[in-house]
Amino acid sequence: MLLWVIQMALNWLWSPVFFLEHQPDKALIIITLLLITVLLLLSRRKSTTKWLHGCLFPTRYGLDLPRS
Known about the structure:
This protein is 81% helix and 0% strand. The chain has helices spanning 2-19, 24-45, 50-64. Helix 1 (2-19) runs antiparallel to helix 2 (24-45) and helix 2 (24-45) packs antiparallel against helix 3. It is elongated and about 40 Å long.
C-alpha cells in the first residue's frame, strides 16, 4: 500500500514541477523515481494480482515510451 501511495504522490507531483515551476530537471528526477516505484509495485504484486498488473502496465509503458 505504501508503494501505491508513493506512486500516486509522485504522479501528482511531476506535472506542477514541470509546467508551473518550469523545472524540467527536477521533473525528470521525479518521473524517474515514479518509474522505479511503478516497477517495484509491479514486481511485488505481479504474482498476487494480475488485475493490478494490468492497471499499472499502461503507466509503465507510458513512462518508458518517451525514453525510447
